[in-house]
Amino acid sequence: MNTQKPITKVAIVGGGSSGWMAAAMVSRFLGPQLDITLIESSAIGTVGVGEATIPPIRTFNNVLGIDENEFLRRTGGTIKLGIEFENWGRQGDRYMHAFGDIGRNLGFTGFHHYWLRGQQSGEAHNYWDFSLNYRAAKNHRFQPLETIPNTPLCGLVHAYHFDAGLYAQLLREYSEARGVKRIDGTIQQVHQHPDTGEVTELTLADGQQLDAELFIDCSGFRGLLIKETLKVEFDDWSHWLPCNRALAVPSETAAQTTPYTRAIAHEGGWQWRIPLQHRNGNGLVYCSDFLSDDQASTRLLDNLDTPALGEPRPISFTTGRRRQQWHKNVIALGLSSGFLEPLESTSLHLVQSGIVRLIKHFPHRGLQSAVIDEYNRQSQDEFEKIRDFIILHYHLNQKHDSPFWRACRESDKPDSLLRRIELFRTSGLVFREQDELFSETAWQQVFIGQGLIPEDYHPLANELPGAQLTEFFRNLNTTFERTVDQLSDHDAYLQQHAKATL
Ligand SMILES: Cc1cc2nc3c(=O)[nH]c(=O)nc-3n(C[C@H](O)[C@H](O)[C@H](O)COP(=O)(O)OP(=O)(O)OC[C@H]3O[C@@H](n4cnc5c(N)ncnc54)[C@H](O)[C@@H]3O)c2cc1C
After folding, report:
1. Which of 270, 275, 237 is nearest to 254 (CA)?
2. How many domains does the chain have?
3. How far apart are alpha carbons 406 and 264 in whole angstroms?
4. Domain assignment of residue 426, given as a range
5. Per-residue pLDDT for 1 more than 70?
6. Per the domain annotation, does 72 fall within a domain?
């Protein structure tokens, strides 16, 4: 399908996080060449969750020119240095997927090989003692720190927790200032070209008509254009990731806001806790085959750190992805493009990378099959790698008394994941594949944190004489300890630089 018609008019369907993120980025980069309209329905509303992020969100905001402190003030935001996983390997276990590096690689040899050697030779240290992010998170410390002065070590790597509705509001102001038009109305009819099947026009409940050449479907789980109109099929991954429900409830803010997300496993799924400046975000993700809605609600409300500020709100979902995320003249972003549960806070990142990919592949001179195919290939690859990383958390559990966790451990896994597990188990090797989101350090933390200690390590780690290995660990330990001691308290930092103005 190749057309020579230049694209000048774009309609964004939906004003949740994905719609406004798309509007902001597309108007920032392509604004002068395009006529952009966003349609959202206040009658339908948004999914209203999506408050924990990963570090690339900083690039997104930086590229838009949004000042970090202003952003935190406007969204009630806090700093996120990692995700703490509680009860995932075994009941009572605790580890963190801390952002940033752990330790220091020497030459070609990753730090974890030295750590593994240390474990075997009596130099046993907690792996996370060598993570600056972990130490800062657990000590409630934060301040911007790109590198540790006078060392080759990188500093803190952070993301944010924020109020999704307030972020969308901020991006709306940004986009409208760059010419994006907004319509509040409900789309009732979608018109297609009789020959090509491309979407041509939308009719709203009040009779308004909107035509465009390119449509960005940000309409949420409903997938108004990609699913309901173009009937693009969905690859259902619920046999690998069986959780299919969530309950979300805000609660009062805690006395101290932790600079990390908590993901606490329970008998039929897990619970999140996301601290904001003005409230906590909480939710329970579960599989309805193993936990009833009533049980889930009780579990959630009984396990809040602070009093609830309302009733739990149910959300149903199916894990998987749209087979083509770009079909004809429709590109799906956000929940309409697929869904991976929020265990590693990846959904907004997928929106972000989808938008960047769209800008790179933008069909200025018309639609080209080769361009669409490449966009879809990259999107699929990205989804699959993140999927494997999330499945790993469920698979590597040793909880033998729970039917849910037993099923998660024993069910089939994608070959791509099994290969990685076997490689790490036998050799300690792990590699980041091209353009993959999660780093080698991220994979190692989940492997080690959930009890998969490799049988071997790289022999190059033996080249360091024993005394130097001891010295190496001691120096790193001292450096991280001293650095953390000098950092600001997280709450004090927010109070001074980014106190919420809500
Ligand atoms: C339980 C849960 C927890 C999550 N937690 C995280 C997290 O911690 N981190 C993270 O990155 N992501 C998270 N996500 C994902 C995140 O919430 C979404 O990726 C994000 O909110 C984007 O949603 P959206 O904009 O695609 O859809 P929505 O927010 O549902 O927005 C859809 C928009 O389409 C509009 N619309 C729909 N139909 C019509 C119509 N007929 N006419 C006009 N407008 C219409 C709606 O009004 C709305 O504006 C979570 C998701 C779930 C379900």
Report:
1. 275
2. 3
3. 17
4. 78-161+414-490
5. no
6. no
